[in-house]
Amino acid sequence: MEERERERKDLISEVEEILSSNIELSDILNQIMKTVACGLKSEVASLFLLDEETGELKIEASYGLPEEIVKNARAKIGDRSITGWVAKTGQPLILNGEVKNSQFNGVNPKIKSAISVPLKIGNETLGVLNVSNREKNVIFNEDDLRLLLSIANHSAAVVKSLKLQKLLFSRTKKLKILHQISSLANSLLDSNQLLSKITQISTELLLSDGGFSVLKKDEEIIPISEYIIEPLPKRLDKEYMEKLCKKVMERKDTLYLTPDSDHIIADFLREEEISCMLCRGLESKGKILGGIAIFRGKEKKRYSEEEVLFFNTICEIVGSALSNALLYENLLEKHSQLEKAYRNLYSYEKLVTLAELASGIAHEINNPLTVISALVDMAEMKIEKPEEVIKKIKEEVKRTFRIITGLKRLSQQKPSVQKLIDVNEILEDTILLLKPKLLSQKVEIEKVLQEDLPKIYGDEVQIEEIFINLLNNAIEALEKVRRIRVETKCDGENVIIKISDTGKGIPPEIINDIFKPFYTTKPDGSGIGLSLVKEFVKANSGKIDVKSEVNKGTEFTITFPVPHNL
Fold first, then answer.
1. Can you tell me the distance from the alpha carbon of 453 to that of 421, in angstroms, rounded to the nearest whole number?
2. Which residues contact 75 (CB under 8 A, 6 or more apart)?
3. Is the entire prediction scored with pTM above 0.85?
4. Per-residue model confidence as pLDDT tens digits over 469-478
5. Domains, in order of start, for the chain
């Protein structure tokens, strides 16, 4: 008797040692089943734990049972099985001899003795611990029952603790994943890319066989992504999936579909051998923007409540991110339209500038042609010094050529071409183009151009347009004293161009706004001239600065770097 008691104490100590070991819960429970079976001289030991998601009792650990039984054995709390009865009543049960004729279902008729005890924490039943024998010479008694109850009580606390740890770890991991999904979703500003990536992530995280997503644009449903991991027995009807997504997008909650659902798609799921499907619209601020559907094949278990909740959270995150992506795309589209309109307006302004120059240029071209014609007449009269006449003809031809070249350059619509250019030469050509306007408005222009000014890398068309815009603005700003000064110099590192006038000046409260697109103080102005000047200066690696004093005038200073790798 004493030896038997010692064996029982040793058995409990061994179980306690296993329970305190730092190994996986499944390994702990399987070791306990082996220890219990050996200690009680039992052929079979099994531990059923309650799956809170399904409400079923499933074998979590066992000893002496065939793998097929371990895999498929199930019990429901309160059903007619021994395990179900013990789980419901919370009472232990010992059966000797009468097992075969008991009121319980599913009992192996070869079993001669069995004990079944609950794993409980307070009033909460976690599972059921069973041992059984088929040999007549090993019959369990009340001492065995008490021993098994003691082991069950010791095990219950550890099982509960480890399950809570596992649940905490799982939820912490999911929170981390949700944070990563949120960061990823908010970093993707392309709606198609966002939906494709989230469809893939949702499918993989929720152990699904495939997923689909659609986008809603202007009341039209657009298929975006199809992500299939495991090929289904039948080819999934993509068109049907798109119709389903349209149906889903009529509601804001998750649609959980199974083959036995009371839904029009149930037949489709049976035909395609799909065990379950989750569908949800992607919503932001009460508006449905798209939809996602994921599914599992018939070999997979159905989605749990926790998985549905996880899917819902992903969809809520994606709904907000999708809204941002669509807003960004809309902003890009509006920006593109605005840029196109801006360019069209710029082209129009250029045509207006050319038209203004045309009448004056016609006069400027006519003057040298008149001189050339007169000189030719003189040549026909056989003048004494023909070389002077020829020299004068060449000068007038060159002048005409420069006017035409400047006009042609201004009218061309070519991509930007960077090359070495002479700033002084472009300034001279620009002033020549504006000469009719300068003369008609009685503007005195003072040129202080440094000789041997280094060339710069730039686009000569853009540089010329900078000068035309600034000189035109200077002319229009003049009042009583009508003088403009143009100066160039080099400080060793930069070529510096200063264009100043004696006009009315710019009020200090608006001087920071003059380079903004469409900002203008002129009644008939477009407000793109100075914004283009700034854009072209920047495009040619330059900088522009402005100083102004009301009623005294304005000075623009432009600097371009001198290339040193020549």
1. 11
2. 48, 56, 57, 81, 83, 84, 87, 128
3. no
4. 899 889 988 9
5. 2-168 (3.30.450.40), 180-331 (3.30.450.40), 416-566 (3.30.565.10)
